[in-house]
Amino acid sequence: MAIDPVCKMTVDESKAAATSEYNGKTYYFCAAGCKETFDKEPDKYAGETEGHEHSHH
Q: Per the domain annotation, does 20 fall within a domain?
């Protein structure tokens, strides 16, 4: 299962409504609208599902 980077819904990769490739990674979306939002500002959403935060000292 994947997480839609826009709305954070769980998405079954085999049933995803849409996908986008960005920086060599495939992102899965629950709906075309989430893909459109991602494609407009991929840097805003890419990496948020990676699970690692930048620490501030």
A: yes
